[in-house]
Amino acid sequence: MASKFVIDPVKKNLLTKLVDSGKNVLLTGGTGCGKTTLAIELANELGLNPIVVNCGSTQDARSSLLGYFTLKNGDTVFQEADFLKAIQEENTLLILDELSRASDDAYNILFPILDFRQEVRVDEKDDNRIVKIANNVKFLATANIGIEYSSARSIDRALQDRFLTFNIPYLKGSKLKSYVRKQFDGETAEKATSLFKMYDFSHKQFDNAKISARLSTRMILDVIPLVNDFTIAEICDHVLLSIFRQDSSTIITDANILREYADSLGVYDKTSSATN
User: Fold this and answer.
1) Residue pair 113/133 in contact by the 8 Å Cβ criterion
2) What is the pTM of this model?
3) Distance CA 143, CA 153 (A)
4) 260, 27, 12, 265: which is closest to 166 by C-alpha?
5) Domain residue spans in the chain?
6) Distance from C-alpha of 239 to C-alpha of 232, rounded to nearest angstrom
7) Distance, CA of 101 to CA of 143 (rounded, Å)
8) pLDDT of the chain along its 276 residues, tens only?
9) Of 86, 124, 173, 179, which is the most exposed, with the fewest CB atoms less than 10 Å away?
10) How far is CA 137 from the centre of its chain?
11) What is the CA radius of gyration of the chain?
């Protein structure tokens, strides 16, 4: 059921051309808007092997990105990390996922890899300590930037200057419905109509500072397989609205606002079915 990620065709063509020419690209946008999905799609279109590196797990940057020492047959040997191996493999797209969650040490390792030097020094190696980037290795990063992402951080300006930045907006509900129609089928898309309306409503309310979080593209896509077996009310109460149900009274209010809107759509009408 493969289907292309929905994005402005001019922006998509620009991204493809830039990545293909070897430019480093940074995709920014809200959580769950499809940044990583788009990055993998670009890799496939360009005939590159996509390797996703979770930058949020690079607190011990040298071990995560370069490697670590381990015992082998009684000897201490240096084991290269997957990232270090990947930059030495031709025709690879390194996807630096959640770059805004990386540590300062990770940034320092990435600098010489991403600029004109195209290399990194690995002092732990016994020989060949200067590791060069292989032919046709590309770099694309993703990041969540904004005050709503409390665990994210401001990307170092020097590092950000090594990328061309593209913002990936959330899809509109109508586009998301078309995507679901292609990925699944028309009947499933129609059954999920209320979900697309709630999705649009949550974004409008968020933009107007009425609620503290939005329903993401990923969240809607994740629950689409449920619409043939559960009512939209059940999906809302037990899955979608549960992200708002924490200790904060503000968050509880957010859930109530979305539930009231769902109720206005007839989602909680006892006579309604999953078609709402």
Assistant:
1) yes
2) 0.76
3) 10
4) 27
5) 9-167, 173-264
6) 10
7) 8
8) 344 566 778 888 999 999 999 999 999 888 888 888 889 999 999 999 999 998 877 678 888 899 888 888 778 888 888 999 999 999 999 999 988 888 888 888 999 999 899 999 988 888 888 999 999 999 999 987 654 444 445 677 778 888 999 888 888 999 899 889 988 999 999 999 999 999 999 999 998 989 888 898 889 999 999 999 999 999 998 998 887 765 455 556 888 899 999 999 999 986 454 444
9) 124
10) 21
11) 22
Q: What is the pLDDT of residue 211?
A: 86
Is CATH 3.40.50.300 correct for 9-167?
yes
What six digits make up the tokens of 47? Answer: 């005939």
Contacts (Cβ under 8 Å, ≥6 apart) of 99: 26, 55, 141, 142, 143, 155, 159
Amino acid at 122: V
